[in-house]
User: Fold this.
Amino acid sequence: MTQLPGWPKVAVVGAGAVGGYFGGLLARAGAPVVMIGRAAFVEAVKKNGLFLDTLQFQESVRVEASVELSAVRGAEIVLFCVKTTDNAAAARALAPLLAPSAIVLSMQNGVDNVEQIRAAAAIDALPTVVYVAASVPQPGRVSMWAAAIWSSGRKARRLSASRRFFRGASAVPNF
Assistant:
């Protein structure tokens, strides 16, 4: 997909089923997206693009991919999608790379991820509830059957821009 003007740069930290799905939809809509993931994922995406297999479409999407966390530099929106057991290490490595105005969305399973991220690295991440029935049947391919995303709380003004962003990408209907 050709990147369209007006989209903020997005970085997906922990590109798997959740990050691959939401980051892939944002890229499909024209956002500049970099996926940060494991070597097999990165190699497959660089070679063939990210293949999204959804109920609505099956399509290969071109995204930037890297195994290096430093690829997050310059991102305005960061989708934090690592496994909970990796929160502290990932947050500490991410903190010095973040732009001062970057919005970090914790898109993970679990109820205390934001607190873990804040405790490890003083990153003021936004809590996000994500439901996505998705899998990664092979590197570079995300299969999805259903999705929803919600976020609320004390940071509503910061979050309103994120809501418009996801709606603009048709990533989720009710965010």
Q: What stands out?
A: The first strand starts at residue 10 and ends at 13. Helices lie at 17-29, 39-48, 87-94, 113-121, 156-168. The CA atoms of residues 164 and 175 lie 8 Å apart.
